[in-house]
Amino acid sequence: MSLHHVRRGAGEPLLLIQGMSGNHKHWGEPFVALLERDFDVIAFDNRGVGWSPRVDEAFSIADMADDAAGVLEAVGLPSAHVLGISMGGMIAQELALRHPEKVRTLTLGCTYPGGPEGTLADEAVLGPLVEAMRSGDRERAIRAGWEVNVSADFAVDEAQYAVFRATAVEKPTALAVIMLQMQAITAHDTSARLAEIAMPALVIHGTEDQMIPVSNGEAIARAIPGARLERLDGVGHMFWVERPERTAELLREHALSSAAAT
């Protein structure tokens, strides 16, 4: 597996793991520009996505966690602070469990543990989104994706939507790959193993997340020993887009305080 990655900034290494259909550009320039002041930022495209090679065979979240470990090895880093969001947060959970020596601190955003407390988007949210994606109308699909991934107040900002749309059309993810990602997400379940995570953990979740309700973040924070939960009031799924400054501040506090203590 040969995965595309970009590297920016200097300081403590920070690996960014994107969510379903997202590539490295979906982190957004405002957020990455804030991070690179304090971190050596490594952002990569998951298999089948962005500038990484297309895939046709099924894969698991655990497979993608091994991919993430391979990215660190490829850039010559024995370990890094890790931020994973949504599906990327599921990958980050598996990375911390399968390769704990590679994770200095763990930050899980807007993500899902599986198991009895795990709750994904309900049909009222997911149905119209899937229908729009399958319609063949690209503009409708992009707009639907925007509206379910941010809060209602943020969704009306047309300047922000224009940035989201430009990223979406630059390197769209094939529908077949998105379906494979959805299969991997459906099978994901770390709920019974989260108590094994020993590195410092931060959980971030917007209270208006429609894709993965905030109850998931609360369940993850309860399950990981010593984890801190940060709820972002009035914020949707893509919290790092709506609140880049606050998200970067939380990461800086979490990662750099842990680095100073070692």
Helix content: 40-55%
CATH-defined architecture: 3-Layer(aba) Sandwich
Shape descriptor reads globular
Number of continuous helical runs: 11
Query: CATH first level: which class?
Result: Alpha Beta
CATH homologous superfamily descriptor: Alpha/Beta hydrolase fold, catalytic domain
Average pLDDT, to the nearest integer? 96
User: What is the domain total for the residues?
Assistant: 1
Query: Care to count the β-strands?
Result: 7
Whole-angstrom Rg: 17 Å
Beta-strand residue percentage = 15-25%
Order of helices and strands: EEHEHEHEHHHHHEHEHH
Across the major sheet, the strand order is 1-3-2-4-5-6-7
Q: Find the CATH topology.
A: Rossmann fold
Structural class: alpha/beta
Biggest sheet: strands, sense, closure? 7 strands, mixed
Termini separation comes to: 33 Å
* Contiguous uncertain segments of 5+ residues: none
Characterization of the model:
By secondary structure, the protein is α/β, with parallel strands linked by helices. The protein has a single domain, classed as 3-Layer(aba) Sandwich (Rossmann fold). Helix content is 45%, strand content 16%. The chain has eleven helices and seven strands. Strands 1-3-2-4-5-6-7 form a seven-stranded mixed beta sheet, sandwiched between helices. Strand 6 (201-206), helix 9 and strand 7 form a beta-alpha-beta unit. 45% of the residues are buried.
Which secondary structure elements does this structure contain, and how are they paired or packed?
Elements: E1 5-9, E2 12-17, H1 29-35, E3 39-44, H2 61-74, E4 80-85, H3 87-98, E5 103-109, H4 123-134, H5 138-149, H6 152-155, H7 158-170, H8 175-187, E6 201-206, H9 214-223, E7 228-232, H10 239-242, H11 244-261
Parallel strand pairs: 2-3, 2-4, 4-5, 5-6, 6-7
Antiparallel strand pairs: 1-3
Helix pairs in contact: 1-11, 2-3, 4-5
